[in-house]
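Re: that backbone. Tokens:
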């Protein structure tokens, strides 16, 4: 480009220069528009990523709250179990209260067969009536 300029006059060179400047402005305008479009697209993608991060943050907080509640329940259960271990009875059981369930405990004597006595401890029967 530019090798065939030796035979051109001043007027032809000015015309060529004006055409090059117009072409260069069009190229720069097109380049600017492409960059502006890319910026808008990246801003939109950034907004979507930010929204997704906020949703994940909410899920993490919910899971942390659930974990804290489960740890609290586990600690309460372990404390109740520890109380039962410290009791002087040979049986371990936990008393769990539920207002919707009635509990009936019955003490049954072991049945004797043919004048043979069993030395087994009495059986406790637990019946739950909803």
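Recovered sequence:
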């Amino acid at each position: 480009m530019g090798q065939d300029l030796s035979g051109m006059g001043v007027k032809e060179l000015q015309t060529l220069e004006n055409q090059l400047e117009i072409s260069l402005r069009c190229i720069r305008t097109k380049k600017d528009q492409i960059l502006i479009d890319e910026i808008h697209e990246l801003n939109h993608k950034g907004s979507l990523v930010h929204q997704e991060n906020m949703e994940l943050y909410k899920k993490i907080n919910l899971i942390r709250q659930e974990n804290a509640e489960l740890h609290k329940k586990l600690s309460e259960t372990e404390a109740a179990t520890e109380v039962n271990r410290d009791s002087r009875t040979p049986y371990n059981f936990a008393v769990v209260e539920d207002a919707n369930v009635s509990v009936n405990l019955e003490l049954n004597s072991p049945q004797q067969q043919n004048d043979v006595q069993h030395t087994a401890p009495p059986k406790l029967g637990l019946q739950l009536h909803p």
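The longest strand covers residues 102-108. Helices lie at 10-86.
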